[in-house]
């Protein structure tokens, strides 16, 4: 399908939380320590408020919304058994097209806490923790093999989730490496995905095909060092601290006032779970698998790409090339936004998702059907 616009730049506007902090260190929101969430077998359902946070809190109800002013759909935190592993997901909304939100590297479904309650007003929204991340199980790479933590595995997880839990076709809303997961799922089973909305998709610049030939031996040696010696675990311990997580987030968020204590805990806590270090090292040593430019031509559903123009990790100048694929209907520039637009600028992202879904929900070719 031809793109309506080659590139669209949204007007910059005031963020939802316009605190004029000059630096990340000045942005502080005091919250209590978040206990770790260990879902039991089967399904665990707990209703929690989602205006600002859906971080698991031992199944308690934490209502931060004023239902008389701005009623928000309740969010349920659940577990789903997949191939014998427990997968955590969140869901909200009772009607409308199905959306599945897919997080990026090192993140989890709580990274969509500013999107779920808004989108759930007119959609059935699901946000999943990919296996190995968040509060889903983290099987040891040594037990499941080197080919387990790949986009093929995560793509299969996403399609099986739609078949088993959503029980419907769905739009995939994806950030960073989640975009590769969504693309892989859409290519593997085109009957499930109704459309792809990709936010700052990973360019995969450390992929073996993108490494200079003279650097490949050094990169491979370094990856082997991280994966097979104590160096990797020492490195992980150095980054799995509140200070390091905050520093990393301040690099990829252009508006550092959005890097709150709550966000730091959302990213940090699952990384302290057993097995998290091995998954972390396994992925940063993963230089194979598909590239976005290889998957995009194979996709059968409509694709919209949005990109924060201040992303220091995934260059928008390189990302613009993805807007030239026939399957991509628009490439939308999000001004003054970094790598995680759904969290940094939800006021820009949520309306884009709603309009994209509405546009393609009306198409007979993408009409909903139980799967």
Biggest sheet details: 10 strands, mixed
Q: What is the H-and-E element order? A: EEEEEHEHHEHEHHHHHHEHEHH
| Helix-residue proportion | 25-40%
Terminal CA distance reads: 25 Å
Averaged pLDDT:
82
Specify Rg, calculated over alpha carbons. 19 Å
Hey, roughly how much beta strand do the residues contain?
15-25%
Major sheet: arrangement of strands: 1-10-9-8-7-5-6-4-3-2
The rough form would be described as globular
Number of helices: 13
What structural category characterises the helix and strand content? alpha/beta
Number of strands: 10
**Uncertain ranges:** 1-7, 11-68, 364-368
At a glance:
Residues 97-346 form the AB hydrolase-1 domain. With 371 residues, this protein is α/β, with parallel strands linked by helices. It has 13 helices and ten strands.
Commentary on this structure:
With 371 residues, this protein is α/β, with parallel strands linked by helices. The protein is 32% helix and 15% strand. The protein has 13 helices and ten strands. A ten-stranded mixed sheet has the order 1-10-9-8-7-5-6-4-3-2, sandwiched between helices. Helix 3 (151-166) crosses helix 4 (177-188). The two termini are 25 Å apart.
Keyword list:
alpha/beta, AB_hydrolase_1, AB_hydrolase_fold, AB hydrolase-1 domain-containing protein, ten-stranded mixed sheet, disordered N terminus, 371 residues, 13 helices
List the helices and strands and how they pair.
Blueprint (H helix, E strand, L loop, with lengths): L7 E2 L37 E2 L26 E8 L2 E8 L5 E5 L13 H4 L4 E5 L12 H4 L6 H16 L3 E6 L1 H12 L4 E7 L16 H13 L1 H10 L2 H11 L8 H11 L4 H9 L7 H4 L7 E6 L7 H4 L8 E7 L6 H4 L1 H16 L10
Parallel strand pairs: 1-10, 5-6, 5-7, 7-8, 8-9, 9-10
Antiparallel strand pairs: 2-3, 3-4, 4-6
Helix pairs in contact: 3-4, 5-6, 6-9, 7-8
